[in-house]
Design goal:
There is one protein chain. The protein is mainly alpha-helical and 360 residues long. Helices cover 49% and strands 7% of the residues. The longest helix has 38 residues. 31% of the residues are buried.
């Protein structure tokens, strides 16, 4: 009897060992299979494929959207186990996620857990006016367009700035947005960015700058932005306008005249345009115009409040983006004759023509 019991015991132990080995083998196989699922490419769509998680979506709904978008890797149970191991279950964030080829389930769940959504870009260009800014936002996709049909005053009211003139109030930069954002979202960020940039520039202004407020600095910066063809000249151009303001001279800057002409501007400024009075005609009205005329960038803001020193009161374009700066009207006239009327003295440059003007 004892020998039979020992034999049965040995047999039972042997079976148990075999079962344990089989279970271990199955567990090892299952683990390797799970690891291959987690780290093997899951997305098989094109480079532009994406999936969206909406507010209120449960994990089953997210898996359904992934299947619809072309992700066919693994079983739902494997996705759930992986999400639990990554502490992603119940923590997937709302948004749009890229499904580029080669993306693994682990990488995709990590993106969704961390909220690394698809980002789009829209660039607001230095020197644009508000009409051009609105056109750029209207063309941006997939940006939502809440301002469609609004006039400028309604847009500013929607931004919480009722009564504020919109020109120049938005900082020209590249802004990132995601699907679901709207043009009002971008405008709000650009407005806040300009307020901060203007405050920083004003805080660092030169002591003798002839400006009474940050708003005046914004107006001058917009003129500097429109007059500048080469970035390095911004402080010099700002210096010319600062000295004119200090001396009570008319600014006489064409971009303000053009802005005041509105839709009547056809690409040319004529003498009658310079003499026709508008609130923005700095040939007929002293001081700064009533509002900015464009969006100035950070460099123009800094130039407006820290103009370059010197004695120049005039400048004229060389027709290559750069300018000739002059201290007297005679020197300026010589430069205008040379570069705008093509009447340089034979064999001389504008600088030599200016020297001749000084000697006369």
């Amino acid at each position: 009897m004892a020998g039979g019991r020992r034999s049965a015991l040995r047999w039972g132990l042997g079976v148990s060992c075999v079962l344990l080995l089989v279970a271990a083998a199955l567990a090892g196989w299952g683990w390797l299979h799970f690891q291959r699922f987690a780290d093997a490419p899951a997305a098989s769509g094109d480079a532009g494929a994406s999936v969206r998680i909406e507010r209120g979506d449960g994990f089953a709904t997210v898996l359904g959207r992934l299947r619809e978008a072309g992700v066919d890797a693994g079983h739902d149970l494997e996705w759930r186990l992986l999400a639990r191991r990554m502490d992603a279950a119940g923590r997937l964030k709302v948004g749009e996620y890229a499904l580029e080829p080669g993306l693994t389930p682990r990488e995709l769940l990590q993106r969704m857990r961390d909220g690394r959504v698809v980002q789009y870009r829209v660039t607001l260009v230095e020197g644009w006016n508000f009409r051009q800014l609105r056109a750029a936002l209207a063309a941006a996709e997939p940006l939502g367009h809440e301002t469609r049909g609004m006039d400028d005053a309604a847009v500013m009211a929607a931004l919480g700035r009722p009564g504020q003139h919109p020109e120049g109030r938005f900082l020209p930069e590249t802004y990132l947005y995601q699907r679901g954002d709207t043009d009002l979202d971008v405008l709000g960020r650009a407005h806040a960015a300009m307020e901060q940039a203007l405050a920083e520039a004003w805080a660092g202004r030169a002591q003798d700058v002839p400006l009474k407020s940050p708003d005046e600095a914004l107006v001058l910066a917009s003129i500097v932005e429109k007059e500048t063809g080469q970035a390095r000249e911004r402080p010099q151009i700002a210096g010319v306008f600062a000295r004119r303001l200090q001396k009570g001279m008319l600014l006489q800057t064409d971009p303000t005249v053009i802005y005041g002409m509105g839709s009547g501007y056809d690409g040319n400024i004529r003498k009658r345009d310079l003499t026709t009075d508008t609130p923005y005609n700095t040939y007929t009205r002293p001081g700064l115009p009533p509002t900015p005329i464009a969006m100035p960038g950070r460099a123009a803001l800094q130039a407006a409040v820290n103009p370059a020193p010197g004695d120049a009161l005039y400048f004229v374009s060389r027709n290559d983006g750069s300018h000739i700066f002059s201290a007297t009207y005679a020197e300026h006239s010589a430069a205008v004759d040379c570069y705008q009327r093509r009447r340089c003295p034979a064999g001389s440059t504008a600088g030599e023509a200016q020297d001749g003007a000084r000697q006369r």
